[in-house]
């Protein structure tokens, strides 16, 4: 198995936006492209309430969670103060306009994390 998995072309990611990458197990990975064409990858889950970071607004080297506007650093996965928390990062490699994620991380990293389900709590049996 190759050490890196090709996931898309840089141009497939909107400028100052994101693209989701599905995994066989675990949550999706959000691949972000900044206005100056830097590419980052984070688990598509805000550390606050689990919001989909791929739907957030990218500004500079950060993304604003679409649920509660927490600012998450794309290079660190850390929430900006005064908030605290961190979302897992994934290694990214860009070669000849193609975006690659580390294959072992895709297969195993943060596969135990889930996104909270919104709505009323299910009744107990």
Description:
The protein is mainly β. The protein has a single domain (4-108), classed as Rieske Iron-sulfur Protein. 5% of the residues lie in helices and 33% in strands. It is built from 1 helix and 10 strands. A hairpin with a 7-residue loop joins strand 2 (17-21) and strand 3. The chain is globular, with a radius of gyration of 15 Å.
- Give the mean pLDDT: 91
Distance between the termini: 45 Å
Task: Outline the biggest β-sheet.
Answer: 4 strands, antiparallel
Number of strands: 10
Overall geometry: globular
Whole-number count of domains: 1
Biggest sheet strand order reads 2-3-4-8
How large, in whole angstroms, is the Cα Rg?
15 Å
Residue stretches low in confidence (pLDDT < 50, at least 5 long) are: none
Question: Can you give the helix content as a percent range?
Answer: under 10%
Number of helices: 1
Secondary-structure-based class equals mainly beta
CATH architecture: 3-layer Sandwich
CATH topology-level name: Rieske Iron-sulfur Protein
The CATH homologous superfamily name equals: Rieske [2Fe-2S] iron-sulphur domain
The CATH class: Mainly Beta
N-to-C SSE series? EEEEEEEEEEH
Beta fraction: 25-35%
